[in-house]
Amino acid sequence: MSDLRVTFLGSGDAFGSGGRLQTCILVQGGGTGFLVDCGASALISMRRFGAEPNAVETIVLSHLHGDHFGGVPFFILDAQLISKRSTPLRIVGPPGTRQRLRETMDALFPGMSAVQQKYAIHITELTPGVRQEVAGLAITPQAVRHTPGTEPLALRIECGGRVLCYTGDTEWCEDLVPAAQDADLLIAEAYFHDKRIPFHLDLASLQAHLGELRPRRVILTHMSADMLARVPNLDFECADDGLVVEV
Fold first, then answer.
1. pTM metric for this prediction
2. Cys-Cys crosslink for 93: which of 17, 61, 123, 223, Cβ 3.0 to 4.6 Å?
3. What is the number of alpha carbons within 13 Å of residue 161 lying toward its C-beta?
4. Class of CATH domain 5-246
């Protein structure tokens, strides 16, 4: 069993609350390096915090909203033109990832999807509830409740003998229990403190179910401006851009 190094390259929401960058979490260890989500600002955060794009073997996506996957076309373009990638890139995401990525690439850079990259790109689409081994990771996705059309997943990721869970964006639902139960680290959305809105998780709902989840450690992320104002008074670890933790 080896420690994992988790770097929050981006810990913000879709709206730049608190001046934070969009969701992008770098995990290193277990013989690999991977991103959990790759928001539109991902390359900015990687340059800011000294993360090497070519050291990322896999990008794992929780859902298909721009603040969680919109950085992938830029990552692919950088790999071709700037970082001069030669090793394969694996992109793992929910059903529909392949088509949505192709459409987004062409919307941002017309004709991009037809360009033959100088490195291989392998895309794997996950099936909710099915454990799948990809590039040294064992990923079990669970379908959760977020905006229709984004194919939202909570991700349970096994790597180096450790278990990480990322809720993605979701309101509370029972499918979070098998995703997060007994995880070494639960990275949980806490968009509001106790205000319940559709499609997003509030801290009060998370707290009410921690006895079922039993994670060894919890770090809150993807917080609104209202939630960020409460951070100094919370009895929880909270992510910030550039935070590094060992698991």
1. 0.97
2. 61
3. 3
4. alpha beta
